[in-house]
Design goal:
Elements (H helix, E strand, L loop, with lengths): L2 H14 L5 H13 L1 H19 L9 H8 L11 H9 L1 H7 L1 H13 L4 H15 L3 E7 L2 E10 L2 E8 L5 E7 L4 E4 L1 H4 L7 E6 L5 E8 L3 E7 L2 E8 L6
Antiparallel strand pairs: 1-2, 2-3, 3-7, 4-6, 4-8, 5-7, 8-9
Amino acid sequence: MSTEETRKLELIQGDLDGELSAADRAELARLLLQDPEARRVRDELARTDAMLRALPPAEPPAGLRPSILSALGLASGGAEGTGSGAAAWGRYRLAAAVLGGLVVVGLGYRLVSTQEDLDGLQGSIAAGAVATAPADEVVIAVGGGHVTARLFREGTRTRLTLESSGLEPIEVIGQYDPTVLAPAGAAAAGPGSRAGQFGAVLQAADPSESLEFTGTGPIRLEIRAGGQRLDTVVLGADAPD
């Protein structure tokens, strides 16, 4: 793997783990805007990360951690079976997932260890596989970074996630048809929210937001920074309900 590809993966994984500095976030934003392959890799790792985070904490079978760390060229440091070892294992979950082994083993381990819930779990995995992939997604350039908006359809519910890597507060104003979408939680109580409209502010210290709706339908987003409108997009206009 080239130095450039290694750096790309370091930035993407650091972004998913929330460990990037402001300078690194700006570098990643430029990379994602210029490189479609980088955006594809980030999306795949984000979906894998979401799957792994959804699994309950469980110690992997003996010998799994050393074999993965060895394949990655990393030393286990003698931490097998200790609390610090478990913490270190979490740091490499995405790298292990890229190898393809951990996802399969983790899901299998979850199924075997909770046999009494097998029937319900199989249904939830089938539903989750659909919900994991967004129905629509857009990346918008902002000062020193980008805003990623994703629209998920989960049966008769709609979920909108907003993430910012910008260095300044980002204001998002959303509009929707109240006859087909009913807001819940933050979508109903955010700044400037009223029937058919909601607002959210993404701060540098709190750069993400998740908004829930009952029903399905398109959502129009206006992205603002420093009082200026940066872009307007519509998510879900062509996605099937």
